[in-house]
Design brief:
The protein is of the alpha/beta class and about 200 residues long. It has a single domain, classed as Flavin prenyltransferase-like (Rossmann fold, 3-Layer(aba) Sandwich), CATH 3.40.50.1950. The protein has 7 helices and 6 strands; from the N terminus they run E-H-E-H-E-E-H-H-E-H-E-H-H. Strands 3-2-1-4-5-6 form a 6-stranded parallel beta sheet, sandwiched between helices. Helix 2 links the parallel strand 2 (about 30-35) and strand 3 (about 55-60). It starts with a strand and ends with a helix. Bound molecules: flavin mononucleotide. The site of flavin mononucleotide has 17 residues, from helix 2 and helix 3. Flavin mononucleotide binds near residues 10, 38, 40, 84 and 120.
């Protein structure tokens, strides 16, 4: 598949970094496009900057002379991670004023897979309505809401609970974490007698 990762100026650059790290382990063709404000947040949040493998193609937001600005060269999947509320609003309203927003517009019109990963909290009615618009237009929303049942012990492990959901939904699964009911016995609760029974 051809996978385009859009990175915006929302907090959570580490989600994009971890996602790209795993995608680089696959045989998919990976491209990255940064929004106008993404570099500022990346420099705040990622001490070593955004690390991209040699196979990843990186594009800026300014030029529409990028492959994914046209329906004739649409990626199979576009993931906007983290997705700012500004970019969410622009995409929801077809405001294709930069390469990232235009790519999302193209992905929707060509009926390819668009995944938005917002981390905003709390949300206002405008955010919720824009998310609804994305869903109605065929896009998917995977909020950056970590889970804890795998007992993540590091920030990276917490982040990976979200990243694994993104990879699965993008159709590019990578064995990031044990899947539910694949956890080692040691982390199961002993309070449920049925659980004990099934493991003896
Ligand atoms: C450190 C930092 C963190 C930010 N976090 C968020 C965020 O979580 N969500 C959001 O919508 N905007 C956030 N912003 C504001 C966006 O960067 C700003 O709205 C920007 O115009 C978004 O533009 P873009 O969508 O083109 O990246 C943050 C800004 C900074 C400097």
């Amino acid at each position: 598949m051809r996978i385009l990762v859009g990175i915006t100026g929302a907090s959570g650059a580490i989600y994009a970094q971890r996602l790209l790290m795993y995608l680089e382990q696959t045989s998919h063709e990976i491209s990255v496009v940064l929004s106008r404000y993404a570099p500022v947040v990346i420099s705040e949040e990622l001490p070593d900057g955004l690390q991209l493998g040699p196979g990843v193609r990186r594009y800026g937001h300014r030029s529409m002379h990028v492959p994914f600005a046209s329906g004739s060269n649409v990626p199979d999947v576009m993931i906007i991670v983290p997705c700012s509320m500004g970019t969410l609003g622009r995409v929801a309203h077809g405001y294709s004023d930069d390469a990232l927003a235009r790519a999302a517009d193209v992905v929707l019109k060509e009926r390819k897979r668009l995944i938005l990963v917002p981390r905003e909290t709390p949300m206002n009615l405008i955010h919720i309505r824009n998310l609804e618009t994305i869903l109605l237009a065929g896009g998917q929303v995977i909020p950056a809401n970590p889970s804890f049942y795998t007992r993540p012990a590091t920030v990276e492990a917490v982040v990976d609970t979200v990243v694994s959901r993104i990879l699965d939904n993008a159709g590019a699964p990578v064995d990031v974490l044990p899947r539910w009911q694949e956890e080692p016995d040691s982390i199961r609760t002993k309070s449920d007698p049925e659980d004990d029974e099934s493991h003896h």
